[in-house]
Amino acid sequence: MTIGHPSWEELVRHLETGEPDLREHTRRCSRCDGIVKSATLLLEGLRNARLPMPPRHLVEATLARVTAEASRRPGFAAKLGSALREIGAALVADSRVPSHALRGAATAVPRMLLYETDRHRIAISIAGGNTPGTTDLLGQVSPKTGASLEPGGRATLSCGTESLEDSLTEFGEFAFRGVARGVHRIAVELGGDVIRVGDIDDGASSEP
Fold first, then answer.
1. Which of 96, 124, 168, 184 would bridge with 113, disulfide CB 3.0–4.6 Å?
2. What does the DSSP assignment read for 12-27?
3. Which pLDDT tens digit goes with each residue over 191-204?
């Protein structure tokens, strides 16, 4: 960390890591505390923006340029390798729109969400679990082209400090039953890619 005020990058990283030194600094420094609060609002806005997926031709053209650049510059592919394997899935359909805050929590149960990447679709069903205060999340990954998925896929769900894992069936199905209510994130590992889905709010965060 730099002497004096930390940089913007350090403050944004603090939102993910919760570094004790930076936490203490922002508690005492109104300038840096304001930056952290602004960054928090910005990140929340980006998460909730539901930006559309870029057109397929643009994705293919971008990957082609990256591949060409990697062939000309030693070490370029290694530097970008981890980023290329991380894919954010875009929400394209929600059965409960507008939100339950306007229409009531019992509207459209189970709630159905559909996410997409350039190669896959991920459908997720959300309903109350058998135990009060819990949620069942059932999902299925399907390829946009071809009839089958790569073998060996798995899905990981995280919600707060809770983390659960389930292997994908041959049909791309996974299930997380009886998880604590809240905001959930799902990562699907499939064919060398990590597809990130979230934040999935089951409604608990907006209840009085």
1. 124
2. HHHHHH--HHHHHHHH
3. 778 899 988 888 75
Domains, the chain, in order of start with CATH, read: 8-48 (no CATH), 86-206 (2.60.40)
* Under 8 Å between Cβ of 11 and 35: yes
In the chain, where does DSSP find H-type helix?
A: 8-17, 20-28, 30-48, 56-72, 76-85, 100-103
Put residue 14 in one of left, alpha, beta given phi > 0 → left and psi -120 to 50 → alpha: alpha
Q: Is the CB of residue 165 less than 8 Å from the CB of residue 149? A: no
Which residues does residue 167 pair with via DSSP β-bridges, in sequence order? 154
The per-residue pLDDT for range 65-81, each reduced to its tens digit, is 777 776 776 666 555 55
Prediction pTM value: 0.56
